[in-house]
Write a structure and sequence with these properties.
- The chain is mostly helical.
- The chain has one domain (2-252).
- It contains 13 helices and no strands.
- The chain has helices at residues 2-8, 21-28, 34-58, 63-78, 93-106, 108-112, 126-132, 141-146, 149-175, 179-185, 198-205, 209-232, 241-252.
- The protein starts with a helix and ends in a 5-residue tail after the last helix.
- Mean pLDDT is 76; it is low at 1-19, 28-34 and 118-122.
Length: 257
């Protein structure tokens, strides 16, 4: 039991912002960091493609066109021609990305241009991303149909942040041979205490109920820590993290899924 808890423990406080989405953008376009930058930016695309696709699709494009434009948008980023002026002091990375996306969509030359996908970048298809990382945080059909594109972008962004924190938590558990712990507890990260059957979890995990309570507490704590780390990558300073988390959590509460 102690080993399980230690596996899930993490820091609530952030001490640095060394690896941020800003640094990936800025380094990705420089000659000396091209290879590492492309790899990092490809990771960025894999995490955040859903908000991009959702925004484009909600703007009236067909699913196929929205998928193609999503690929094109990220390829422009990977080529280092769109966000090289990115400045963390000018706001949140989320805001920069949607502004750049709007500019991308109204640029007729970019929209009409036929782009060769992949090449030496080895770009990953959206189909593969969907298969490798199915979304657990869905948006209801009613919310999707009645929300403007900008609101859906922010909501999908919030889901992407939460999904990445969940993915990292699952990976940590699996690396320590604790996949069963993740499977048993991941549905209770935001559940009210009165709605949790500690007896059922005790049977599922084979540990006493008091141990389940302690384990769930540490599981939630680690998830919060990972969520803070993911949010910290998209804002300019630690002072902005709490505000962004509150905003994103409020959005997730409206998704209806």
């Amino acid at each position: 039991m102690r080993a399980v808890v230690e596996t899930l423990e993490g820091r609530d406080a952030l001490t640095h912002f060394a690896t941020t989405r800003w640094s990936l953008i800025r380094n990705g376009g420089t000659a000396g960091a091209r290879s590492d930058g492309n790899e990092g930016l490809a990771e960025l695309c894999q995490i955040y493609w859903r908000p991009i696709f959702t925004f484009i699709y909600r703007r009236g494009y067909s699913a196929q066109d929205a998928q193609d434009l999503t690929q094109d948008f990220f390829l422009v980023i990977l080529e280092g021609t769109l966000l090289q002026s990115a400045d963390p002091a000018r706001g949140r990375f989320r805001s920069l990305l949607i502004k750049s996306l709007k500019n991308f969509l109204i640029d007729a030359q970019l929209k009409r241009r036929t782009r060769k996908r992949g090449g030496d970048l080895q770009f990953v298809s959206l189909e593969k991303w969907m298969a490798d990382a199915p979304c657990q945080l869905s948006i209801s059909a009613q919310v999707f149909a009645t929300s403007p594109a900008e609101a859906l972008f922010d909501l999908s962004w919030a889901a992407a942040i939460a999904e990445e924190a969940l993915r990292r938590l699952r990976t940590e558990c699996e690396s320590k041979g604790r996949r069963r712990v993740y499977e048993a507890l991941n549905g209770y990260l935001t559940t009210e205490r009165g709605d949790i059957s500690y007896q059922d979890l005790s049977v599922a995990l084979g540990v006493p109920e008091p141990s389940v309570k302690s384990l769930l507490h540490q599981f939630r704590k680690r998830y919060r820590g990972l969520l803070r780390e993911e949010v910290a990558k998209t804002v300019k300073s630690e002072a902005d993290v709490d505000d962004e988390i509150r905003y994103l959590c409020a959005l997730l509460s409206t998704r209806g899924g």
